[in-house]
């Protein structure tokens, strides 16, 4: 199921957040901690300390939306060892993360861009 269509960027906040935070608290984290604009249309993904819940904040040009997922069993394979405080991931990596695949260990081939064959 495609929940988010034509998402410009997907940013993960790598440190766990207090899940009592809602739209206002998370949008402040986006501006102050992630150094991004919450109005960009990007998805901003947050995880709880136990890695059993996700919140996704995004702006849809009319207001903020907050998407929430709770796992009944298992944990999200959160990329804690990847460098940086904030991680920009691809749509494919986002789907892998939701499916429980460790995106630190699984990477696709890098796209090549050539100008000429000769």
UniProtKB/TrEMBL annotation:
One Pfam family named in its UniProt record: TnpB_IS66
Protein name: Transposase
Organism: Rheinheimera salexigens
Lineage: Bacteria, Pseudomonadati, Pseudomonadota, Gammaproteobacteria, Chromatiales
């Amino acid at each position: 199921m495609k929940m988010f269509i034509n998402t410009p960027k997907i940013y993960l906040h790598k440190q766990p957040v207090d899940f009592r935070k809602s739209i206002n608290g998370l949008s402040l984290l986006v501006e102050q901690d992630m150094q991004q604009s919450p109005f960009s249309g990007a998805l901003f993904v947050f995880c709880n300390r136990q890695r059993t819940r996700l919140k996704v904040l995004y702006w849809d040009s009319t207001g903020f939306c907050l998407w929430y997922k709770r796992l009944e069993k298992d944990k999200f394979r959160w990329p804690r060892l990847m460098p940086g405080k904030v991680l920009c991931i691809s749509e494919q990596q986002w789907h892998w993360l939701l499916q429980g695949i460790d995106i630190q260990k699984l990477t696709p081939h890098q796209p090549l861009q050539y100008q000429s064959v000769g």
